[in-house]
């Protein structure tokens, strides 16, 4: 126990933020900040004798005193910090705690406690090599600060001790007030000790303290042992007068005692309740076991009752309700273990879940807002948007109009689905997408009859159950991908769905009841029109969405995709910036698609890479650096075994700057070419591809139309020794095979004119076979539009002259050499543009289709129109067609 000590006139000061060390208390602290480490090193570690330092509480600027009176009531404590802030200019700048970036004034308390180090240990942190100290301090006596100044990195203070002299103390002890107060304090303290001993079943060592230690010191020791708030700690520190100190300590000890008692009561109550609920649980378990044994099952009964309630609330039409009740009665008669019970239940659940009446409230359609919405969500597509607005306008004027079903046709990723969802948003209706890709079984649309094992409702009814309203916008996605086989024809079921006459009473086989689909707004999407059965096509209005030009893609990426991708990855432009030039490179080198789906994927890959970096950097921010809360000192510990109290010293004025630096958002990542390659890999496409592939005679560049939009298709021909046969490879359909035959015949017939053979009578295929291959051999190909490309490739082969690498062509050819028009011109021209092709040969009669091609694309291409095959050859070869060249000579 601390005996009277002689304090020096000046003490090194260790600040305690929002924490007070009282005399007699023992505390263990870890010093990590440079200033506190320096202080410990110089004042305690390097000294021979046991050093004494001053512990001075400081009030964090964030912790404002609740009232002026609370700190000064007992001993008239004032705040030194406020005083020092006035004299800041004369004193050192260390008074401005927290550095330049922290403007708040930190309030030093003007009273502290001198403390002696009982134990010191030094540690070196790895790998930083930072020195830290663990110090066990014992509070000795109070002092008041006369003047605060700095020594190097830490503070020192000129102090006056506040302890009473022995003679003074003897005099106070005679005071009857003091005697009464100390008796009262001891009684309360005794009571507390008894309660704690009872709780912890520890021996009476602490009682000895009461007899041996002077009562005014006991007051401090007791109060230091349990948790009280900072204001009360300060008040205790300021209680220099022993009578004031005793009465304050009695009050605090008593309060602590009461709180222990209340806590005990609560614990007892909770324990009682726990055992009660445990008992109940056991009983319930037993009850359930008995019921199971007897075959009773209350749970099932409850479930059926709940199902019945749900059915009542479902708003079924009268005839459906009658049917449902019949089914329910059957269910009630069944035992849960009986076959058919479950299927009957699942069926009734479906009836209860279907939105028979529930509809999303259709708000008054605001065409202007709808137009704005379409514009916000989608770039360009002016024609498509106009058509959608017309469609919405008709619906507004005549809500039950039986207009055609809109069908968006175009390659993947051009915005078909998102346009449909914008329509739903504009109408204020829910949106549901039903995927029809690969549906070959009629039952997928219409459901299986319930007699089948594992029968289910069809996709439409299932979709309605999921969406929960009877008037959603339903997107029939990839309607061109439905096929028919032995299991029926899904298209005919769809026909019923889309026919306003029939869909009022749509009959799902599983449901076996009519469901009214007339309130649903159907929108369909398809990649191509051709595969859609004509009857179905007849019900729909096709709106074509061609692919985008690179410039359009760039705009879409910058305005729509990038902000959305960043948002999806929890990033913003503050963290990641992808400059326009880089997006352009992604478009040119990493995507060659008609839509923007891969582009979006690639941007997402960049965002993911950036997110990892940002997340890693966040991790490095030392959020909890040296800011640990102080542990609460426990009376039990201090009194029973003199246990040390662990506490962290909060560094002041040294590390704050570092912390705020770490918090500051660093500059954003700006994607450059190196990062692009690192994340997306080496470029996938370049403009040189065509030139490389047509480097040998016999290869020509065609334009074809696939489900993914327009594509460039190379045709390769080669000749070898043989018997004059034609070999074709590349998964070709009948039409394209015939085109190849026609092409070969045409070339053979004109072999002499084209100067491919010298002798008039000689056979071009004499002693040799021809092999034509369409690369990308795994993709099936068909259609007549490769005619001109085939001829060009054969002429190139036989004349051994290379086809121009910058020229692509499309066109059907007749046996007599006429070039016939083909479909998909717009997509094909866009594809040529994407591949960096400069010249496109088209059938003359396709000239009108060029009106649909964006002007920006047209202006960068040379369009050459051909009427006959000779025109094509003239343009396909450098310097014109072989025979013309000959005639020029
Ligand atoms: P689809 O249904 O045609 O396959 P999606 O509707 O799923 O394509 O579109 C793919 C992505 O591209 C979506 O995120 C969509 O928002 C975006 N997108 C497509 N076209 C545009 C456009 N014109 N403006 C803005 N975003 C677009």
Automatic annotation (TrEMBL):
The keyword Transcription does not apply. It is found in: Peroxisome matrix. Residues 83-96 have a biased composition (Basic and acidic residues). It comes from the Eukaryota. One of its GO terms (biological process) is protein processing. One of its GO terms (cellular component) is peroxisomal matrix. The keyword Nucleotide-binding applies. InterPro entries: AAA+_ATPase, ATPase_AAA_core, Lon_bac/euk-typ, Lon_lid, Lon_proteolytic, Lon_Prtase, Lon_prtase_N, Lon_prtase_N_sf. Residues 11-257 form the Lon N-terminal domain. Residues 66-100 are annotated as: Disordered. Its main location: other. A motif (Microbody targeting signal) lies at residues 887-889. This is Lon protease homolog 2, peroxisomal.
């Amino acid at each position: 126990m601390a005996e009277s000590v002689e304090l020096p006139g000046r003490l090194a000061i260790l600040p305690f933020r929002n924490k007070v060390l009282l005399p007699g208390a023992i505390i263990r602290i870890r010093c990590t900040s440079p200033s506190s480490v320096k202080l410990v090193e110089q004042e305690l570690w390097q000294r021979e004798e046991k050093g004494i330092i001053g512990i001075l509480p400081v009030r964090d600027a964030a912790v404002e005193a609740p009232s002026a009176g609370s700190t000064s009531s007992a001993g008239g404590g004032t705040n030194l910090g406020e005083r020092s802030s006035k004299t800041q200019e004369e004193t050192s700048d260390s008074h401005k705690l927290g550095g330049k970036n922290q403007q708040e004034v930190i309030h030093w308390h003007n009273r502290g406690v001198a403390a002696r180090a009982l134990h010191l240990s030094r540690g070196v942190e790895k790998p930083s090599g930072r020195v830290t100290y663990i110090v066990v301090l014992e509070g000795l006596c109070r002092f008041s600060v006369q003047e605060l100044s700095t020594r190097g990195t830490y503070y020192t203070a000129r102090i006056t001790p506040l302890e009473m002299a022995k003679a003074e103390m003897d005099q106070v002890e005679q005071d009857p007030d003091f005697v009464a107060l100390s008796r009262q304090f001891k009684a309360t303290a005794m009571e507390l000790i008894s309660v704690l001993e009872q709780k912890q079943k520890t021996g009476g060592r602490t009682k000895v303290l009461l007899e041996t230690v002077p009562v005014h010191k006991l007051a401090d020791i007791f109060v230091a042992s349990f948790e009280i708030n900072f204001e009360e700690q300060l008040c205790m520190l300021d209680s220099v007068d022993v009578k004031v100190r005793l009465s304050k300590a009695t009050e605090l000890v008593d309060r602590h005692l009461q709180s222990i008692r209340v806590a005990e009561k609560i614990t007892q109550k909770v324990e009682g309740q726990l055992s009660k609920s445990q008992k109940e649980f056991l009983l319930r378990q037993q009850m359930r076991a008995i019921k199971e044994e007897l075959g009773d099952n209350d749970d099932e009964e409850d479930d059926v009752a709940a199902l019945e309630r749900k059915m009542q609330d479902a708003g079924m039409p009268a005839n459906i309700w009658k049917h449902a009740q019949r089914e329910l009665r059957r269910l009630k008669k069944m035992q849960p273990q009986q076959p058919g019970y479950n299927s009957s239940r699942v069926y009734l659940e479906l009836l209860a879940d279907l939105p028979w009446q529930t509809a999303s409230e259709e708000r008054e359609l605001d065409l202007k807002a709808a137009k704005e919405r379409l514009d916000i969500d989608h770039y360009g597509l002016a024609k498509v948007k106009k058509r959608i607005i017309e469609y919405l306008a008709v619906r507004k004027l005549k809500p039950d109009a039986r207009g055609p079903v809109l069908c968006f046709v175009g390659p993947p990723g051009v915005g078909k689905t998102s346009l449909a969802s914008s329509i739903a948003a504009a109408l204020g209706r829910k949106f549901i997408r039903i995927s029809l890709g690969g549906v070959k079984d009629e039952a997928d649309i219409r459901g299986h009859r319930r007699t089948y094992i594992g029968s289910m409702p069809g996709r439409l009814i299932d979709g309605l159950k999921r969406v929960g309203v009877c008037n959603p916008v339903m997107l029939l996605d990839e309607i061109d991908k439905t096929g028919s086989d032995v299991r029926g024809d899904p298209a005919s079921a769809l026909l019923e769905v889309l026919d306003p006459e029939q869909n009022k009473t749509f009959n799902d086989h599983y449901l076996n009841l009519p469901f009214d689909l007339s309130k649903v707004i159907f929108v369909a999407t398809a990649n191509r029109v051709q595969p859609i059965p004509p009857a179905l096509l007849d019900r729909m209005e096709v709106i074509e969405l061609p692919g985008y030009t690179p410039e359009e893609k760039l705009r879409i990426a910058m305005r729509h995709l990038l902000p959305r991708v960043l948002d999806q990855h929890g990033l913003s432009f503050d963290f990641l910036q992808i400059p326009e030039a880089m997006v352009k490179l992604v478009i040119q080198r990493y995507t060659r698609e008609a839509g923007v789906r891969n582009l979006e994927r690639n941007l997402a890959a960049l965002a993911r890479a950036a997110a990892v970096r940002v997340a890693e950097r966040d991790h490095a921010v030392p959020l909890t650096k040296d800011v640990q809360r102080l542990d609460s000192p426990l009376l039990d510990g201090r009194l029973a075994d003199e246990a040390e109290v662990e506490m962290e010293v909060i560094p002041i004025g040294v590390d704050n700057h570092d912390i705020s630096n770490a918090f500051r958002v660093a500059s954003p990542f700006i994607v450059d070419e190196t990062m692009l390659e690192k994340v997306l890999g080496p470029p996938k496409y370049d403009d040189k591809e065509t030139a490389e592939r047509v480097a040998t005679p016999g290869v020509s560049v065609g334009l074809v139309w696939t489900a993914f939009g327009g594509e460039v298709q190379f045709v390769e021909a080669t000749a070898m020794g043989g018997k004059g046969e034609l070999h074709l490879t590349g998964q070709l359909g009948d039409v394209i095979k015939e085109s190849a035959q026609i092409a070969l015949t045409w070339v053979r017939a004109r072999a002499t004119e084209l100067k491919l053979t010298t002798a008039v009578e000689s056979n071009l295929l004499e002693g040799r076979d021809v092999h034509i291959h369409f690369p990308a051999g795994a993709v099936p190909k068909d259609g007549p539009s490769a005619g001109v490309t085939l001829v060009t490739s054969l002429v190139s082969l036989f004349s051994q002259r290379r086809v121009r690498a910058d020229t692509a062509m499309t066109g059907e050819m007749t046996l007599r050499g006429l070039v016939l028009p083909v479909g998909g011109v717009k997509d094909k021209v866009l594809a040529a543009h994407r591949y960096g092709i400069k010249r496109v040969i088209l059938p003359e009669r396709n000239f009108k289709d060029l009106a649909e091609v964006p002007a920006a694309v047209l202006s960068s291409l040379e369009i050459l129109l051909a009427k006959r095959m000779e025109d094509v050859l003239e343009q396909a070869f450098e310097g014109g067609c072989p025979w013309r060249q000959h005639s020029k000579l």
